[in-house]
Write a structure and sequence with these properties.
Strand order of the largest sheet: 1-2
Helix content: 25-40%
Order of helices and strands: EHEHH
Strand content: 15-25%
Shape: flat
Distance between the termini: 20 Å
Number of strands: 2
Radius of gyration: 12 Å
Length: 69
């Protein structure tokens, strides 16, 4: 079981791991997970939307308590 803040980043056009599947299968298994969807992005989100991925990770890191980052 994962007991730390977690982000799940999904491309809204991802056919390998669709957003709906991640929402149904991953989020219920990670108590503190948040799902972020990237519009117009497929399975390779870091290559297809690097600025979007970086923004999500940056926002996530800023939301953590100082002792956790």
């Amino acid at each position: 079981m994962i007991h730390v803040p977690t982000i799940v980043i999904a491309g809204e056009l991802d056919r390998a791991d669709p957003v709906a599947v991640l929402r149904a299968e991953v989020l219920p298994r990670i108590a503190h997970a948040a799902l972020y969807g990237l519009p117009a992005t497929g399975h390779l989100s870091p290559l297809e939307s690097p600025d979007g991925v970086a923004a999500i990770i940056g926002e996530f890191m800023r939301s953590l308590p100082a002792s956790a980052s």
